[in-house]
């Protein structure tokens, strides 16, 4: 049985990406630059922004952090994202969530340049992924797939169950598994007999935000379990899957230390992909 060491895997990914990036920078002479927009002063959002900033800067990427107040007007936020989209010195834009209630994410993604979309949230990228075409893929599910591929979990013909259908996690995870020729079932809050469905699965990927939703008895012996859940319970970070399920699984991502660090490394992967695209398109 494999307990995934997300930190070690993330370090390995970051080292490889950093080497590829520095080779590109030497060849092009153009400094890669990413912008992180955070429209809240919430300390936990700032913590996440700083973590991403550290990942990017230590790989040699210049980072512009744009912190805007919680009461920022929608038109001001929209104008900022538009400006960054047109700025030739900026190759990647990350919009941090959550956003203040009066700013819908869709309003911002509408004006986001899809060629600078770090987390694959622009409808163009989501549409390309849905059609099985090359796209910028949201970092969390991309990390989930990377974990499965890295550990050589057989995907073609495998029965995969994804719990959760959100745009940034569950839905793209299902599409990525489908691209790998798995037979995919997507479950959500209206699914009946969740346990019976999960018990059929060779691969279970869970992104529900419900601590302990998936219990050990739902896991088929030897199944690969990817837990994206990050929930704070009694001051501790826990996943959506009961840790006791690890005893039955063939591969298991713990929380913390499983999918989380890999997501962060995949954001770097996406920035590198956007920078590469910029260089290829440059006159
Ligand atoms: P979300 O937008 O709230 O979506 C949750 C999904 O789970 C929805 O599709 C919902 O169904 C489904 N769901 C809720 N209760 C359920 C139940 N009892 N049975 C089956 N399905 C249920 O959340 P999200 O953004 O996808 O995030 C999910 C979790 O992943 C959260 O804990 C979040 O913190 C975590 N996350 C982790 C990472 C990482 O890097 N590890 C990154 C992003 C998010 P409906 O569609 O029917 O409402």
- Output the CATH topology of the largest domain: Rossmann fold
CATH superfamily of the largest domain: NAD(P)-binding Rossmann-like Domain
* Biggest sheet: strand arrangement: 1-11-8-7-5-6
Radius of gyration, whole Å: 19 Å
CATH class of the largest domain: Alpha Beta
The number of strands is 11
Shape: globular
Mean pLDDT: 97
What proportion of the residues form beta strands (DSSP E)? 15-25%
**Helix percent band:** 40-55%
TL;DR?
By secondary structure, the protein is α/β, with parallel strands linked by helices. 41% of the residues lie in helices and 16% in strands.
Q: What do you see in this structure?
A:
The protein is α/β, with parallel strands linked by helices and 283 residues long. The chain has two domains: 29-115, Rossmann fold (3-Layer(aba) Sandwich), CATH 3.40.50.10860; 139-259, NAD(P)-binding Rossmann-like Domain (Rossmann fold, 3-Layer(aba) Sandwich), CATH 3.40.50. It has nine helices and eleven strands. The strands form three sheets. The chain has a six-stranded parallel beta sheet with strand order 1-11-8-7-5-6. The chain has a three-stranded parallel beta sheet with strand order 3-2-4, sandwiched between helices. It has a two-stranded antiparallel sheet with strand order 9-10. α1 runs parallel beside α9 (259-281). The longest helix has 23 residues, at 6-28. It is globular and about 55 Å long. The termini are far apart. The mean pLDDT is 97. Bound molecules: NADP nicotinamide-adenine-dinucleotide phosphate (NAP). The site of NADP nicotinamide-adenine-dinucleotide phosphate has 26 residues, from α9. The site of NADP nicotinamide-adenine-dinucleotide phosphate (NAP) has 26 residues, from α9.
């Amino acid at each position: 049985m494999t307990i995934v060491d997300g930190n070690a895997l993330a370090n390995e990914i970051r080292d490889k990406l950093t080497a590829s990036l520095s080779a590109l920078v030497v060849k092009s002479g153009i400094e890669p630059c990413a912008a992180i927009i955070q429209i809240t002063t919430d300390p936990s959002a700032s913590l996440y922004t700083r973590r991403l900033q550290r990942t990017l800067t230590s790989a040699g990427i210049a980072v512009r952090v744009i912190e805007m107040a919680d009461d920022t007007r929608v038109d001001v936020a929209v104008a900022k994202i538009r400006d960054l989209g047109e700025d030739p010195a900026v190759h990647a834009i990350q919009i941090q969530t959550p956003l203040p209630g009066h700013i819908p994410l869709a309003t911002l993604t509408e004006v986001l340049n899809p060629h600078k979309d770090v987390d694959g949230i622009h409808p163009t990228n989501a549409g390309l992924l849905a059609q099985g075409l090359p796209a910028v893929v949201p970092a969390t599910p991309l990390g989930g797939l990377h974990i499965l591929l890295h550990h050589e979990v057989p995907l073609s013909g495998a029965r995969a169950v994804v719990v959760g259908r959100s745009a940034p996690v569950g839905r793209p995870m299902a599409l990525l598994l489908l691209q790998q020729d798995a037979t995919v079932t997507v479950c959500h809050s209206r699914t009946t007999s969740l346990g019976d469905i999960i018990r059929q699965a060779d691969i279970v990927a869970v992104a529900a935000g419900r601590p302990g939703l998936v219990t050990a008895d739902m896991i088929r012996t030897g199944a690969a379990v990817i837990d994206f859940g990050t929930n704070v319970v009694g001051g501790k970070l826990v996943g959506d899957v009961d840790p006791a399920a690890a005893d039955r699984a063939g591969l298991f991502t713990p929380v913390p230390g499983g999918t989380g660090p890999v997501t962060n490394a995949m954001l770097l992967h996406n920035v590198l992909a956007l920078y590469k695209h910029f260089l290829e398109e440059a006159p």
